[in-house]
Description:
By secondary structure, the protein is an alpha/beta fold.
Amino acid sequence: MNTAPILAAQIVFDDDGTPRSIEHGDIYHPRDGALAQAKHVFLEDGALAERWRGRDRFVILETGFGLGNNFLATLAAWRADPARCRHLHFLSIEQSPPTRTTIAGVPRDAALAPLAEELALRWPPLTCNLHRLSFDGGAVELLLAFGSAAAWLPQLIATVDAVFLDGFAPARNPSLWEPRLFRAIARLAAAGASVATWSAARAVRDGLASAGFAVERAVGAGEKRDITRGRFSPGFVPRTTLRRAHAVAPARHGVGDERRADVVIVGAGLAGCALADALAARGLRSLLLERHTDVAAEASGNPAAIFRGVVHRADGRHARFHRAAALAAADAVQGAIERHAIPGSTEGLLRLETELDIAVMREVVAAQALPPEYVAALDSEAASRLAGVRLRFAAWHYRRGGWVDPRALARAWLADAGERARVVFGVAAATILRKGADWCVGDEHGMPIATAAALVVCDGAGALLGERVWPVRRQRGQIGVIAAASLPRGALPRLPIAGHGHALPPIDGRVWFGSATSWDDDDGDLRWPEQQSNVDRLAALLGLDATPRLDRLAGRVGFRWSSEDRLPIVGAVPAEFVESVAPRPAVARPTRRDQPRFIARAPGLFVFGALGSRGVASASLGAQMLAATIAGSPVPAEADLVDAVDPARFLSRRFRSAEAERERRADEDQPPVGSIAGSLGG
Length: 682
Ligand SMILES: Cc1cc2nc3c(=O)[nH]c(=O)nc-3n(C[C@H](O)[C@H](O)[C@H](O)COP(=O)(O)OP(=O)(O)OC[C@H]3O[C@@H](n4cnc5c(N)ncnc54)[C@H](O)[C@@H]3O)c2cc1C
Ligand SMILES: C[S@@+](CC[C@H](N)C(=O)[O-])C[C@H]1O[C@@H](n2cnc3c(N)ncnc32)[C@H](O)[C@@H]1O
């Protein structure tokens, strides 16, 4: 998806207090209030709630989040309904979002004002992302897509039960009422999904009808005589494809079977524990199998890990994935600090910039309209003031970056999952086998350890699926630690500093720093040369005049897995990787291999690994994406990013380069045009 800068809404207020968009010259809601319209038009005077009753999940899609009144009215109705669905997902697209101050301060109906405060507390930075906001312990999920509806709708992965169309008047806001948007919405609609809008414009009804909605005029309220309502009932049902349909039905728990898991997870590091929590929030139970006697005993076992976003001029997939991941990590870490008092901070991080000068950095920020709530470009003086130490370079200030104790975070995720996650320690998974509709995990003797409809391999990089089915490499990393008292006064940073290496603020009187790395190196012992290079980096990062002396080796060695494109591997496993243990799915085999989404998968088998040097952030976002895929709930990332981390991407890439090579050879084999002409003429 091409990202476009997100600019905040410019709002003025009419004399009666009704908010008006300067850009569109129209009011956000009728003068008699947003709540009355939301109740009558969108909540259908209670009829919408009747449809969510008794259901596990109900999904609403809105075009035009605006000030969030429809969302707040829906949240209020859901909270007030004793028979409400267990999970409510509200997906909304907004091109010009309000700022947090506007969300908190705009005049609202009295019933919605307290809910607006909750929304403001969670309000994300205005970046082009699909932001995930969680309410009511995860039972309500608001997915906010900042950007144009035309760009976002084709990128959403969801099956929607109700659609709220809430643009400004079509004449003032044609971009939100185009027929192609209605077709894109139809692609997401479940059979029988409802559509509602306050507009009774003929063009709107016609556009919806041609997209497959049976529409009718309904009685309006207040200033509106008529409104439009409809149901999705297309004339033909499109051929079902394998595209991204990987949801697994939850286990049916019989009497005495309450502990049966829906999902077995191999590995209880950051990936496995984050996933267990994200599945639990969607009502699924997991059983984690871990070969050690504690969680996070391998790569995830460092005492402190940093997290931050990425800024890149082209804002490509890498920058976008890591921006989304860093924002997800900030929410996860903040929540764990608040609920479980784990060691960590989301108070910011400074990334030193050694290549671009400050003017160029500012240009990049301005061109992408990146808000200071996400990142700011600071010259070395401003960065030094923030850090509390003398920095020699300009820096990117990631406002919600920070650090965390990853083992404590993994434990917090499991605690949040509660009874829906159970860990069995001291068991090493060695085999997997498809048995009927289940996956069976066995030990080294092939004895069954656990069985479930879904299996997720979170063992680092998917080794359980066979040696190197993906292009991944293992990297040794060594971090060091020094007593804070042995560093000079004025050399202790207040924020984590990253650059060539990283240094953390003092934790319990000690400063952690790192990381010296080497590839394909299995030595688990601390080494002096790495210690020395780490200390040199520390001195450079903190601007020390002399390198501190360390007379004993102190720190930790760990091993992390990375993929060849430095993005994690998250999603359903291609069927061809496991043909020996699972027959191919009994669906027609798609012929296309040029895009990952066309490649056939082993049903119920997933991988989540290769988190590289960004385990905290990639675990936070990847877990939400994968849990949504498994549960069949809306995926909190755009399709492009789902493809970017798809385990099948390497097969598609290989296929595309083989095709290109074949075409090149075919061109070479053709006789030159001149010689054809010559032979014809001769
Ligand atoms: C030196 C170093 C510094 C780092 N610094 C940072 C940092 O500052 N910020 C950051 O975000 N990331 C950092 N990382 C990266 C981060 O630690 C990793 O990306 C992350 O921990 C990987 O998590 P994981 O759950 O995929 O793997 P792991 O934590 O390795 O978890 C895999 C788990 O699976 C278990 N397992 C494996 N095979 C089996 C089996 N067959 N049966 C049962 N259990 C099995 C293992 O015992 C392990 O517990 C660093 C890594 C290193 C090494
Ligand atoms: C009437 S307001 C929505 C009111 C909102 N539903 C509420 O409950 O407060 C219309 C919204 O659509 C947004 N919008 C207009 N054109 C858009 C587009 N092409 N893509 C996404 N959002 C758009 C506007 O910025 C505005 O916030």
